[in-house]
Amino acid sequence: MTAFGGIFGIHxxxxxxxAGLAVIVLVIIWLALxxxxxxxxxxxIDEPILIGFxxxxxxxxxxxxxxxMIVRPPEYLADVRExxxxxxxxxxxxxxxxxxxxxxxxYDVQQDFLRCPNCLRRLREPCVSCGKPLASDWKxxxxxxxxxxxxxxxxxxxRRSRRDPQETMVAPPPSDLI
Length: 178
Ligand SMILES: [Zn+2]
Ligand SMILES: [Zn+2]
Hints:
The protein is mostly helical. The protein has two domains: 77 residues, no CATH class; 69 residues, no CATH class. The protein is built from eight helices and four strands. It is rod-shaped, with a radius of gyration of 38 Å. The termini are far apart. The N terminus is likely disordered. Bound molecules: zinc ion (2 copies).
């Protein structure tokens, strides 16, 4: 280009230099846009094939990137994931603290109620060991692992011996005396 400009004198020489510079700037901007499209697509799209397709479209100088910006997903993947986690956490909170109804009278009760405050019927049994409310079909207490088939007196004795082994040796529990 400079050799071509040299034939027509200094003015043309400078003009062709400026044109060359403009082309270089445009190519740099175009390459930057291609990279930007690729990086942006990676943050918004899960499918590698679609990311590749978006990058391919952006190879059409400038127009490709504009088209990509029109059709790209509106949200970042990270935001979508964060929101779905928040929804999950909210659902767990609702399940934990939400109210249930009494199976006998449909009164609003909470999950850990032992007895319905309206019809006074038994809803859950307290654990013999730790006192936490247990559903009738649970085989063990999920809080303290006490087997629910075990005699309450035996459980009390086990707890006592776990706390202070010497106490049970000195004073045997009342059930042994019977
Ligand atoms: Zn009830
Ligand atoms: Zn328990």
